Amino acid sequence: MRFTRRIILAALTLLLPVPAALAQSPNPLPSWNEGAAKKSITDFVTKVTMQGGADFVPSAERIATFDNDGTLWCEQPAYFQLAFDRIKEMAPQHPEWKTTQPFKAILDRDMKALAASGEKGLMQIMAATHAGMTTDDFSKAVREWAGSARHPRFNRPYTELVYQPMLELLAYLRADGFKTFVVSDGGVEFMRPWMEKVYGIPPERVVGSSGVVKLQTGASGRPELMKIAKIEFVDDGPGKPVGINRFIGRRPIFAFGNSDGDLQMLQWTVAGEGARFAGIVHHTDAEREYAYDRQSKIGKLDKALDEAAAKGWSVVDMKRDWKKVFTVEP
Amino acid sequence: MRFTRRIILAALTLLLPVPAALAQSPNPLPSWNEGAAKKSITDFVTKVTMQGGADFVPSAERIATFDNDGTLWCEQPAYFQLAFDRIKEMAPQHPEWKTTQPFKAILDRDMKALAASGEKGLMQIMAATHAGMTTDDFSKAVREWAGSARHPRFNRPYTELVYQPMLELLAYLRADGFKTFVVSDGGVEFMRPWMEKVYGIPPERVVGSSGVVKLQTGASGRPELMKIAKIEFVDDGPGKPVGINRFIGRRPIFAFGNSDGDLQMLQWTVAGEGARFAGIVHHTDAEREYAYDRQSKIGKLDKALDEAAAKGWSVVDMKRDWKKVFTVEP
Predict the structure, then answer these.
(1) Nearest-CA distance A125 → chain B (Å)
(2) Measured distance CA(B232)–CA(B240) in Å, rounded
(3) Interface confidence (ipTM) of the complex
(4) What is the residue-wise DSSP string for A7-63?
(5) Whole-prediction pTM value?
(6) Do A241 and B215 touch (CB under 8 A)?
(7) How far is A291 from chain B (nearest CA, A)?
(8) At B40, phi and psi to the nearest 5?
């Protein structure tokens, strides 16, 4: 069932980011339990913002990057729902998909086969579902999806299944002069249409995977950008430092992820000079959200968990460290 | 002759952007003569910032994009001086360059042959001069160049040959809630190291051409990004709307260029809904700067000049409209 545009807008309005003023309150992170994780964050922010201190970093250089899937919002059971819906819609025009992976896996709802197709499979899906749409039409489709699609377990729009403690963290950092960016393997044009409303992060601060687009003259005689079925950039693993360099042009001093796909971003962040922060969201809460790490098909957290232990990175235990998980309790 | 780092920093400090407060003064554009060009700018800004007005645009959507070469700084006789210097340095290791274009043209100082090699030639130069350096080392080389290289005619660092009226315009727009971006065919990693100091535009708001970079483990065991001799993206002509879509993710409402390489950016800007501004710097001042347009090898302004006339875009006549050209008079 589709919501009307008015209802979508009303729903999005409820999801406005936590106001910056909150971050100046005595407790800027109210949904975080007291403990090592919270303390590591506030200690770091205090340190780099203390004018004249040994670890002071000027505001312009306070770059903070966040993975999205599993770090800012729920990524289980599968966050690429929009692509799924489009594949089903488009299937009648593509009879070959019935026998070709990764499309067959989607049509059969065969999650195991889909996971086996790996990143390449996901990129093929992205390219197929986006191709032949203008960037404007694609943004519209994403907004409709954000307003209508619902999570199978929590029965809420995906954009409501964002982590309240992380929204507070984003606002806290921004109030302290940080620039907050999303750096995700998700399609950049899938993320931009809703992230400003939901996270307070505008399109130009969203870095993601992308397909090729081409400038052409539309039916109206006006120029338009058409999406082509060709992958341009995969913002995952080693692609994350590359994406950060390309889009942000400055090394972060603070980065948060939740899976091995974030390992290189975290390594790249802490390899810079001066004070650095690397954080990991560890999904330990099967009751309020999900519990997964070393063996998970989606959001596998294995090498990065070992490196965090070895290097003393901050590991957030969702069950222990978060008072509240989602913005709106399901 | 090379300046020491201290002197470079001191020189850059002199070039701080015009403070935002200036824009709130009764005359926010003091280096602009009264006339149609100035009026078209202030009228537009007044219109889109008037809350409740028919043309009001929320601050988050006030995206302004500026070409760099010939729009914000002097592009004549050739702005790719850094590449020139590197080619000469590297030539002993590349005997084949003596007979291969575009390298031969540089070594022979044959500007005509260089221009004939076109954009492809420039891109080859960029790839050759950047390859095999880490992004950190390249930034350092650019900073050294910015402090030491001098313009052949004006005998000043290139970063002092920036247009005072355009700095005022950038500050004026920012004071009115605009986000200002550079969108240039110049190499993004060549521009970012100095633009924040000179234009007040931070690295993440600089869009440009780029080469491929690769994440690797450096000698110190730390991750580093190595530049590869392979072109990734050319941010010129039709590439400009593509680059804007990729990096900014939102269509500008205000754009400024000075050549046919900016035509598509200007067309893309004005093709959006609502109030839009397209501006062109016309180089008409051979005495204070240079005079060139339809026949120029560098910064050719021909089709875009016709389109500006046909569509009523704002054309800035440097000689007539600017009281002062450079920040520091040569």
Answers:
(1) 20
(2) 14
(3) 0.86
(4) HHHHHHHTTPPPPHHHHTSS-S-TTBPSSHHHHHHHHHHHHHHSTTSTT---GGG-E
(5) 0.87
(6) yes
(7) 31
(8) -65, -35
